[in-house]
Design brief:
Layout lengths: L3 H25 L3 H4 L4 E6 L5 E4 L4 H4 L2 H11 L8 E4 L2 H4 L5 E10 L2 E11 L28 E5 L2 E2 L1 H8 L5 H29 L1 H24 L4 E9 L10 E9 L4 E4 L15 H16 L13 E4 L15 H19 L17 E7 L6 E6 L29 H7 L2 E9 L13 E8 L3 E6 L20 E6 L2 E5 L2 E6 L4 E5 L14 H9 L5 H8 L5
Parallel strand pairs: 10-11
Antiparallel strand pairs: 1-2, 1-5, 3-4, 3-6, 4-5, 6-7, 8-9, 9-10, 12-13, 12-16, 14-15, 15-20, 16-19, 17-18, 17-20
Helix pairs in contact: 1-7, 1-8, 7-8, 9-10
Length: 552
């Protein structure tokens, strides 16, 4: 046995190791997507691939990463000190091809004591469009280079042949190389820090402590479940479509069962996989389920493998939430994961309404630009996501203009975009009146306007244009998203998933969805309504329409 104080000290040390890995990765990366937006995640694992701790990074990365580590252990059987595995195959490690994962074993005096790993979204990994995020792909082969688990570092030396092969298949090899080397550096820092912990407490104490950490987290999770109302609830929600090859709504269906000390999420009745990029590997569904589960059990329970032991996740192979290869999956990670969260919250609202918010924007508004910069003559690829409104919740308004639920990134600074790419940002603001009305209103969406300064190819991959974020407990829906192209003064409305060519002078307007409201709008405090009008978050017309009060 190990005393609880020592176990808690080790748990906190492991969490900060993951945080420090993220700092190294961010500071060393070349691309704005990793350096500025921090679209990366880091975690520490036990010797069997069990998740021990992670930083406060990207939920959709972190929930799937344990599957990647276990796949690496299964495929690569000859780990040696100094090795690192690289992989991005979504059917092996979850998420989508731009998310490249690096995994490193940690040896202490010749004995394997665990792994460190990080995952980073690269702004191009080849494929049919710059940015490798097509909304109209039907096979994974269109989305970029597929990397099965392979050793990118052998006994401390980078495999230059493998690296050269990877770089030959991307549009911006120098940036890709910089980001991969940054990932290697982050893992090396993680190894150093884990070895210091093991050396300080001894290998026996360390291994006993990680078992104690997982058992304690499982116990805390079960205690939280026991406080919830038991029962069964079903719900469903829709993605707008799957792009040009499937212009029909796609249903995510879930049945939630809360028992004495366990919860089951059953997605078996969700739609079959479709010819489009919104199919999700099972690992993405696991990630979204972990996020919701952790949200409802509360922040006092640590996030590790023990936390999720009381959760059972059921999917049906060949569906949009458990796709089979070679289905395209670029959007499953970023859009379907969001809708899985919405469906789960909708079902849980019938059982634990005090723990559930109204729907947030429900999309990541993925946008990727690429082309040749006329100033330098070099290819460029740029990728970012755009925030929106968070849903209102009991006692609190939703947050304005943030990345919601399965994403947790920052924005790309305007200065960085304009310095590096032939793009000008004309507007970046909150979107007035986009919030769902309620006793606690939803958060506002965002308006972002891009002007092309050269001919560039643009991929858009979003959702919630047809089905707006829903309100809860009498709250109203948030505003749906809108994408608009302005060319020669003419407004052209764009679908949520498309690829276009922008010419110099063209303007692209992204209007992201607002969050749904929570509670009856008639009960909203008049002072809060007047503050929103004063701060230009809502107009007088919006207030009169939704709150039925006399506003001068």
């Amino acid at each position: 046995m190990v005393d609880i104080i020592t176990a808690e000290i080790i748990r906190n040390a492991l969490e900060y190791i993951a945080e420090e890995m993220g700092i190294v990765l961010r500071n060393s990366a070349f691309s704005p997507n990793i350096k500025e937006r921090m679209d990366h995640s880091c975690a520490v694992f036990g010797p069997k691939g069990e998740l021990l701790a992670h930083a406060e990074h990207i939920p959709v990365h972190l929930g799937a990463m344990p599957l990647a580590v276990r796949e690496a252990i299964k495929v690569v059987k000859d780990f040696e000190e100094g090795d690192m595995i690289i992989m991005n195959d979504p059917y092996s490690c979850g998420t989508h091809l731009p998310d490249i994962t690096l995994i490193a074993p940690v040896f202490y005096r010749g004995e394997l004591v665990g792994f460190v790993a990080n995952r980073a979204h690269h702004s191009d990994v080849g494929g049919k469009v710059p940015g490798s995020m097509p909304g109209d792909s039907v096979e994974i082969y269109e989305e970029g280079l597929i990397i099965p688990p392979m050793k990118i570092v052998k006994r401390g030396e980078i495999d230059r042949e493998l690296l050269r092969f990877i770089l030959a298949n991307v549009r911006t090899p120098r940036t890709r190389m910089g980001d991969i080397v940054a990932q290697i550096s982050a893992n090396r820092r993680g190894i150093q820090r884990v070895l210091k912990v093991v050396d300080k407490y001894g290998i026996g104490t360390y291994l006993k402590a990680i078992e104690a950490i997982l058992s304690y987290s499982e116990k805390l999770a079960k205690i939280e479940i026991s406080k919830m109302r038991r029962g069964e609830s079903t719900a469903y929600d829709f993605l707008d479509d799957a792009g040009q090859h499937w212009d029909k709504p796609v249903k995510i269906h879930v049945k939630v069962t809360i028992a004495k000390d366990s919860i089951t999420f059953d997605f078996s009745e969700s739609d079959k996989q479709v010819p489009g990029s919104i199919n999700a590997p099972r690992a993405v569904t696991i990630s979204a389920s972990y996020f919701v589960f952790k949200s409802i059990i509360g922040g006092e329970v640590p996030s590790n493998e023990g936390t999720y032991r009381p959760l059972e996740i059921i999917t049906r192979r060949g569906t949009v939430v458990d796709a089979e290869p070679p289905a395209a999956v670029a959007g499953g990670n970023v859009e379907t994961s969001q809708r899985i969260v919405d469906a789960l919250f909708r079902a849980l609202a019938k059982l634990v309404p005090e723990r559930v918010p109204a729907a947030s924007q429900g999309t990541m508004n993925n946008i990727a630009f690429g082309g040749v910069d006329p100033k330098t003559g070099k290819r460029f690829a740029f990728y970012e996501t755009i925030g929106g409104g968070f849903g209102g919740r009991m006692g609190k308004d939703g947050v304005d203009g943030v990345h919601c639920n399965m994403t947790n990134t920052m924005n790309t600074p305007i200065e960085e975009i304009e310095r590096k790419y032939p793009i000008r940002i004309l507007e970046y603001s909150l979107r007035p009146d986009s919030c769902g009305a309620g006793r606690w209103r939803g958060g506002l969406g965002i308006i972002r306007k891009y002007q092309a300064l050269a001919t560039i190819k643009v991929s858009l991959l979003g959702d919630r244009h047809r089905f707006p974020p829903w309100g809860l407990m009498g709250g109203k829906n948030g505003a749906p998203g809108e994408y608009i192209l302005i060319r020669n003064g003419e407004e052209i409305r764009l679908p949520s998933k498309t690829t276009i060519i922008m010419h110099s002078g063209d303007i692209l307007i992204i209007k992201t969805p607002g969050g749904g409201g929570y509670g009856d709008p008639k009960l909203r405090d008049r002072r809060l309504i007047e503050e929103d009008i004063l701060n230009e978050k809502i107009t007088v017309e919006h207030a009169k329409k939704h709150y039925t009060i006399d506003i001068q």
